[in-house]
Specification:
heterodimer, A: mainly alpha, elongated, disordered N terminus, B: Methylamine Dehydrogenase, Chain H, 28 strands, WD40_repeat_dom_sf (chain B), WD40_rpt (chain B)
Chain lengths: ~650, ~350
């Protein structure tokens, strides 16, 4: 049972009439909690139920904001990306192992940084974290040795020794200090825990160190100690690569053990109880748990020691039996902690159980995701041992957690892209939820969304940015974002706004968007309305720069094509007025003038039918136009008929 | 003396170029700039500005000198600022300016292992809408500051009187701003319009305007004159290209280099050897162009034969593309620092400069 790892929180009470709680999700990682109370007071009065109401926001202790954890998240992300891009043809298993070591070195680095920080600031702010990370490192290491690495012949002892040596350095430092600094005998007198060191080195399989210590004993010359040293020197050690078969080794092992027991029985060590203990430990056929226990701080240390001393050829599937034997010596199974449960599951090769336990670690899913990732690459998840692990769901959850932060959303994307079923959907939702705090951030989101083909996100982000600009009456800025997403509808709306504002204040000399639309090339083609606006600006610039003839032609084409919105017709027609008045030579041909007249008639009809709003000074302006049109028609009829009849004059009939 | 020289040169043949070191920090860094050191020395301090954080800050970092593997740079001094740091530039070896997205322009001094705020301008007096700054440029003691809504204010930074000397009124966003000469500035926006303004003339209309890309609107992200020939403008675009013009004849002298695959975030010429250009992009790559002067024909006599595009660019990709954008690049001596979006500072030492 792992009940004690469910965190319990007390919601602060404002009165003692609280009778229950309601809660709702607030974002991805938080809850909004409200303690409701009995609205009747003790004397039966109904009090104001709204008085003194507060909603508490409960957030998961998030991993996202601590500077040291941040480094870990980003470093492990780099390793994660590397693991997902192992080149073809590479030795995958070897690479996985390297990456696993990379992860562990990040963890160690993080622990070290935290410890340095605590020392500098003289506080224990990271104590919890160091504990959590230490456990993770422990679990990771054993998982790496047993399940990521290839174990030749399934013989696990050397791996277990490697593991316990790294994590139970109780005596290691001291032993190496004693050995390197003492050159004279009498270490047993100088160091009160001399025998603990001897047994400590023995059960970790450091026989060299053990013998070196014995040689430093004040009576190292004595027969007993010499014999003991001699026996330790000849201890048979099993190795898959030694070329000795298991039965052959077992025979040798038994022979050596009986030699040890013969020496013990001969009374050689009787006068030295401590040495006798050492000899009994190595001479026993069965594991002597009671003797080992004082020297092993944990059950797994004891398990390794007992395997070393009695069953060197144990295979990986024997481990759960041995583990069970040792745990029994460490109290009630219910007192086992999460760490123990996870380790047990790993020793039991029950990968799915181990991962489930890992998910309970309070690291925001960090360890579970990254370790499972490596395990999944080895293919173990598709075997019965790893059945039932939903790796994708884990990645999705972790990715979502990262996406909820403005600092990590890009990191989150790199996880979500590996969720085939719902990754894109979550990306879409999470990207839209990110605050668009600046233009620069918006550009980044757009770029990332484009990478994943999320065109709707691109469009919506640009739309929001465009609207922000519109709210500030920055039409140019809004147009920029419409162009960035090729949003023809938005571009059209903006062009409309430009046109309306110009149509309303027709007296303005210059249309405000000429500089905005300058040099946009084909981009103005994304919306017909924008194209019209650009053409209209072109008309203005032609007219102002003396290209009156071209300007007139362009204006007529604009009127003829009827691409212009109706509300803008009067503006266009008014622009035609000075051109119509150009009489010598006329700029507008008879046909052109007829087009203008037709437009004017249509506009008059529409105004009469109330289809469009009555523009200011409508009648006066149309009257002026009519006069100009009439005059121009008169001139052009004469001129053009003269021009047309000219050929007739040249033909003479005899 | 001779002996040591010889040994140095023999060392040189074995010298490892472009060695890369990475350091994770705990901030999203928008700008990382070396604290300048005299020519010939290696820089060892840098200032970073953060963005998108709950609390944004300017940080001074000291790198362990000497051996390469002496560990990560150490944050030695931090100053909290309001809003994203949008630009950060040193104006002399001890002084730098920083602008923020919340409308602050700040002047700092670096004193050994400390950064100290010297001045904060009351920008609300200078511009009508000082709610956010996109960036600035400095030349000859004058700052040209760009607001999100496109106003440009120019004023001498040594003068605390808050009196702007020039203003370009705007209603249109500016993405890139750069001095060309002390009286000329270039502006670029996300619609790809580049305009050159002569500050001596009336500032209501640009002297020249031209498109970054004549075919379609490609946003401009960075602008800089080529340091050896100020009439040559170098710009980068949202599509990852780098373009150059001769401002004396903009219509016929454009060259576009198809370079990065995504938006170019920073563009920086080496101070002492301007033939070396460094660019970074959203695609996460950093490029070293080591014959930019030749590309521009600057090594040939400039007056008579100005020919763009006769040479092929010689580019070395210092950092390959990856998942995270590179936000800035800075070079001092033969050391480069770039800031990536996953809280990573990448240092490249022993650059092979030409």
């Amino acid at each position: 049972m792992v009940k004690e790892y469910v965190p319990t929180l007390q919601v602060p009470k404002h009165s003692d009439r609280n009778v229950g709680l309601t809660f709702k999700w607030a974002g991805h990682t938080g809850l909004a909690v409200h303690g409701f109370k009995n609205s009747r007071t003790e004397d039966g009065q109904v009090s104001d139920p709204n008085a003194d109401d507060s909603v508490h926001f409960v957030c998961e202790g998030t991993i996202l904001y601590d500077p040291e954890i941040r480094k870990l998240i980003n470093e492990s992300n780099a390793t994660f990306i590397a693991s997902r891009t192992i080149p073809r043809g590479a030795d995958v298993r070897k690479r996985i192992l390297e990456l696993s070591r990379e992860h562990r070195s990040s963890i160690r680095q993080c622990i070290e940084n935290m410890q340095t920080k605590m020392k500098q600031k003289n506080n224990n702010m990271y104590e919890n974290w160091v504990g959590v990370l230490d456990n993770i490192d422990h679990i990771w290491h054993v998982c790496e040795l047993l399940h990521l690495d290839v174990i030749p012949g399934d013989i696990v002892l050397s791996k277990l020794l490697e593991w316990t040596r790294l994590h139970s350095s109780d005596y290691d430092l001291m032993v190496s200090e004693v050995i390197t600094h003492s050159h004279t005998r009498g270490a047993d007198i100088r160091y009160p825990n001399y025998w603990d060191m001897v047994i400590g080195s023995l059960i970790e399989g450091r026989f060299e160190a053990c013998r070196a210590l014995l040689r430093l004993h004040s009576e190292a010359e004595s027969n007993a100690l010499c014999e003991a040293e001699m026996l330790l020197r000849t201890i048979p050690l099993y190795s898959v690569y030694s070329g000795i078969s298991v039965p052959e080794f077992t025979a040798r092992w038994r022979g050596w053990k009986s030699t040890v027991r013969a020496k013990i029985d001969s009374g050689l060590f009787t006068s030295r109880p401590q040495l006798l203990k050492v000899m009994t430990l190595i001479g026993g056929e069965e594991p002597l748990y009671e003797l080992l226990k004082p020297h092993c701080s944990t059950w797994y240390q004891m398990m390794t020691a007992s395997l070393l001393l009695t069953e060197q050829t144990a295979k990986i599937h024997d481990l759960s039996y041995h583990a069970g034997q040792c745990i029994a010596h460490y109290g009630d199974p219910s007192s086992l902690k999460l760490l123990d449960h996870t380790l047990l599951a790993l020793l039991d090769s029950n990968i799915s159980a181990a991962i489930k336990k890992l998910q309970l670690t309070s690291d925001g899913g960090w360890c579970a995701v990254h370790l499972t990732n490596l395990l999944s690459l080895t293919g173990i998840l598709s075997t019965p041992q790893g059945k039932g692990v939903d790796f994708e769901a884990m990645v999705l959850e972790y990715g979502q957690l990262l996406m909820s932060s403005q600092s990590f959303w890009q990191v989150g994307l790199t996880y979500l892209e590996h969720c085939r079923t719902s990754g894109l959907e979550v990306m879409r939702v999470s990207l839209m939820e990110l605050p668009l705090s600046s233009e620069d951030v918006a550009l980044r989101i757009v770029s990332a969304a484009k990478d994943y083909g999320l065109d709707d996100v691109v469009k919506s982000v640009c739309k929001i940015m465009g609207h922000q600009k519109l709210e500030r009456e920055n039409l140019a800025g809004a147009l920029t974002w419409a162009l960035l997403s090729n949003d023809s509808e938005m571009a059209g709306n903006i062009a409309d706004k430009f046109l309306r504002s110009y149509a309303r204040g027709c007296s303005e000399v210059e249309i405000g968007c000429a500089s905005v639309l300058e040099n946009l090339g084909q981009s103005t083609l994304i919306s017909p309305r924008l194209t019209f606006l650009a053409k209209y600006c072109e008309f203005h610039s032609l007219y102002e720069n003396g290209g009156v003839k071209e300007a007139a032609e362009l204006l007529v084409r604009l009127l003829e094509s009827k691409v212009s919105p109706k509300y803008f017709w009067l503006t266009l027609l008014s622009d035609a007025l000075p051109l119509l008045e150009h009489s010598n030579p006329p700029l507008l041909s008879h046909d052109d003038t007829m087009i203008i007249l037709a437009c004017l008639e249509e506009l008059m009809m529409d105004v009469a039918d109330n289809i469009i709003e009555l523009p200011p000074q409508f009648s006066k302006r149309t009257e002026n136009l009519r006069i100009a049109i009439a005059r121009n028609l008169a001139t052009t009829i004469l001129r053009e008929s003269a021009f047309l009849s000219a050929p007739h004059n040249t033909i003479k009939c005899d | 003396m001779d002996g040591s020289m010889a040994s140095l040169s023999s060392l040189d043949t074995r010298k490892q170029y472009n060695t890369i070191e990475r350091a994770y920090v705990h901030l999203k860094v928008s700008r990382a700039r070396w604290v300048p050191v005299p020519d010939g020395q290696s820089p060892f301090q840098l200032v970073t500005g953060s963005y998108s954080e709950l609390n944004n800050s300017l940080d001074l970092w000291t790198c362990p000198r000497g051996k390469l593997d002496e560990g990560a740079p150490r944050a030695v001094s931090t100053v909290q600022v309001s809003g994203d740091v949008t630009e950060l530039k040193f104006i002399d070896p001890q002084t730098f300016l920083a602008s923020t997205g919340k409308g602050d322009l700040l002047l700092f001094k670096v004193k050994e292992e400390l950064i100290e705020q010297v001045q904060k301008w009351d920008t609300s007096q200078m511009v009508c809408d000082a709610h956010s700054f996109t960036g600035f440029d400095v030349a000859d003691g004058i700052v040209a500051l760009a607001t999100t809504d496109g106003q440009i204010v120019c004023f001498p930074y040594s003068d605390s009187s808050n009196a702007p000397s020039n203003m370009i009124p705007g209603k249109d966003g500016v993405k890139a701003v750069s001095f060309i000469r002390h009286n000329e500035i270039a502006l670029g926006n996300l619609r790809g319009q580049i305009s050159i303004w002569d500050l001596r003339e009336n500032v209501f209309a640009p002297a020249i305007t031209f498109p970054y890309n004549a075919d379609s609107a490609i946003g401009v992200t960075c602008l800089s004159p080529f340091p050896l020939q100020k009439h040559i403008l170098v710009a980068s675009g949202c599509d990852g290209t780098i373009a150059t013009w001769d401002l004396r004849n903009v219509t016929n002298t454009q060259t576009i280099y198809a370079a990065h695959s995504k938006l170019v975030t920073d563009l920086r010429f080496h101070d002492m050897r301007p033939g070396n250009l460094f660019t970074s992009s959203f695609a996460g790559d950093v490029w070293h162009w080591n014959n930019f002067d030749e590309l521009l024909g600057a090594s040939v006599s400039t007056a008579q034969s100005f020919s763009l595009g006769t040479q092929k660019p010689n580019v070395l990709c210092l950092l390959p593309e990856k998942k995270f954008p590179v936000n800035s690049v800075d070079v001092c001596g033969d050391s480069l620092v770039s800031a990536c979006d996953n809280d990573l500072l990448v240092f490249i030492n022993s650059l092979k400069l030409k």
